[in-house]
Write a structure and sequence with these properties.
The chain is of the alpha+beta class. It contains 2 helices and 7 strands, in the order H-E-E-E-E-E-E-E-H. The chain starts with 25 loop residues before the first helix and ends in a 20-residue tail after the last helix. Bound molecules: zinc ion.
Length: 155
């Protein structure tokens, strides 16, 4: 495994839609292992392949329960609403108030090409939407709004 360089700020890789993964091979497994190591090293809860310069639909998420890998993720269902402070490893030192759905159900392949379904709320849902946006070349900054009056935005 190896740490990969996290693309930052104006790197074009962050703004280009990613292609689906077609080959579930050793190269994909290495990419996923490297992404998990890079995410953990940077203390992140999620990382998308374009953030390490690979324009493929792969994300890893770890909200503290161990890493989950998602290849070609597809959001099946979302509901509710949550507002909270959000940041991104590609924009270090920045954060902003973002409203996301509070619940998500998503399906995705693992490195072996087996299809799994996941569901979760709050931080997990936020991470899934944030990382899946990256696969479409979108960064969270476009969603930042002012927090509602009186809302505590301390981390
Ligand atoms: Zn991000």
């Amino acid at each position: 495994m190896a740490l990969r360089n996290i693309r930052k700020e104006n790197d074009p890789c962050l703004y280009i839609p990613c292609r689906e993964v077609k080959k579930f091979d050793a190269r994909l497994a290495t990419l996923i292992d490297d992404m998990i190591e890079t995410m953990h090293d940077a203390d992140g809860v999620g990382l998308a392949a374009p953030q390490v310069g690979i324009l493929r639909r792969v994300v890893v998420i770890d909200i503290g329960d161990g890493p989950i890998e998602m290849v070609n993720p597809k959001i099946l269902e979302s509901s509710g609403e949550q507002g909270g402070m959000e940041g991104c490893l590609s924009f270090p030192g920045k954060s902003g108030y973002v409203v996301r759905p509070n619940y998500v159900r998503v399906e995705a392949y693992d490195r072996n090409g087996d299809l799994y379904e996941y569901e979760g709320e709050e931080l997990f849902a936020r991470a899934v939407f944030h990382e899946c946006d990256h696969l479409d070349g979108k960064v969270y900054l476009r969603l930042v709004t002012d927090p509602p009056e009186g809302e505590d935005t301390e981390e």
